[in-house]
Every structure is written in C-alpha cells, then in structure tokens.
Write a structure and sequence with these properties.
Blueprint (H helix, E strand, L loop, with lengths): L31 E19 L2 E18 L3 E5 L6 H8 L7 E6 L11 E4 L11 H11 L4 H14 L15 H13 L5 E5 L7 H15 L5 E5 L3 H7 L2 E5 L6 E6 L8 H4 L3 H19 L2
Helix pairs in contact: 2-3, 2-4, 3-4, 4-5, 6-8
Amino acid sequence: MPDYCLSSRGSNVPGTHFDTLPNISLMTTTQNIIEIRNAVKRFPLGTRRTTNGRTGGELTVFHGLDLDLRAGEFVALLGPSGCGKSTLVNILAGQDELDGGEIRKNRPTRGGEEFRLAVVWQQDSLMPWKSARKNVEFPLTISGIPPRPRGDMACAWLRAVGLGDFQDYYPSQLSQGMRQRVSLAAALAPKPNLLLMDEPFGALDAYSKLQIEKEVVRLWEEIDATILMVTHDVQEAVALSDRIIMLTERPAHVAFERVIDLPRPRNLDEIYGAPRFHALVSELWNALTRSRGSR
C-alpha cells in the first residue's frame, strides 16, 4: 500500500469537493445556518403503578426552545446537567428526532455548496482497526475523494493537529488527548459547514485540554465553519466562543445569551490571563446565579 503522506505538500488545510449529504432539507440564507423553532423533546419514563392501575410517564427535556446559529460563528452551549444540551446535539446530528417544533438547516451562501455536518464526541468514535490516517480518510472516502488525494489530505490534517508523526498508529497506541486530535482531524477534513462538539475536552487533563483548545481555535480561524460546542466549563466557553447560549433547567429554554467581545484571532495563553476574560467569566457566573435564583 503506498504511503500517500510522503507526497503531501502545501497548506495544512487542503481543499476538496464533497457530495451532498442525504436527508437534509435545504434553504437559502444570508445569516443563520441553523434555526430552531419551538422545539420539544420528551423521553418516556416507562410505566408506574397508580391507584387507577398502570400509567406511562414522560420527561420533558425542552419545550418551546428557540435558537439560531449564525454562519461562521463559534457558539458555546451551557446549562445545568440534564437540560438537554447533548440531546440537542444528537438531534442536530440526526441521531434523534424532535417531538415537536422544527429545525431548519440552511444552505451555505458561498458558491452553492451543500450542507455538511460533523461531530466530535466526548469519547472518541475512532475505528480501532484503522490507523490514525485511515480514520481521517474515512469521511473523505464517503465523500467520494479518490485514494491519493484523500491520503494527502488526511496526512495534512494530522499534521495540522500535531500528529504528523503518528499517522500509522492505531487508537490503542495513542493517548486520550491524541485520539481526540485524530477525531478533530477526521471531523474537519471534509470541511463541514457545521461542527458539533459535545464536551470534547471534558475527559482530558488540564495541559492536554489547553493544547487541543489552541488547535481548535487556530483551525477554526482558518476554515469557514460554524461550531456549536457543549461544555460545562464557563472559562472554556468564554475563551473559545463568539457567543454563549445559556439554557435553563428542564424543560429547558434559553435563559440568556452573551456575546463575547474578546478579539480574534485569539491567543489562549494571553486570553486566560487577560483582565477582560476574567471580567466576562465573573459576569457570566453572576448572570447564571441570578437566572437560577429566579426560578
């Protein structure tokens, strides 16, 4: 088997073409890439015995949820545990469905491109029988990219996340942080319009977390994509995002939004020590406390 990475040259963020993803309703927009309107999600609780016999129960996760994601922005989604953040990611990713309301995935405005979506989960979903390079190649294979260019592209993305020397390593040979970097490379390789990240750094140690945060910021600033990141970490949300959406306890709705006015491009080593960063974190915590206290 040829080593395509030996022939890689040029940009760390290679270009490519893509096939249309199936089962996505597309509309033209100049601003919002995702529009969620009056969304409702319930989960059955099974049956329980009452004085009148057995009856079923339901848990309403969110009801009447309205939320927009604008093209090209980095949004952090915060909220108490169990309020439906990960459920919303699953629904956007097509792994679950709403019980009411609607989600509109809007056509990108640049060059007539089709809608493309990728996900980075908290636990990596790498295929253990494939090398790092083959894992990154996989979504490109689905997109119909021929073997040599997709090999070059996979290698370029591994270099972009600092794993150029680990292309032939298998997931079992990589640390957790390195596996998440491979997952990130695989998600970004098809250049998605929307990247969903469900607490992607929650299981990492502090140093590994900071390093991969830097990679995410750097690579996102090089590509034209929208990111929705679920996190419990207020500091992480402020450091990375353009806008923070805070959900209430379930049944969840949007408690408040906060635009993060830190400059781009961002140097996280500087941001984490900046007075404005700490002021925003304090402001957000105060708003969160007031929001919960008002319930």
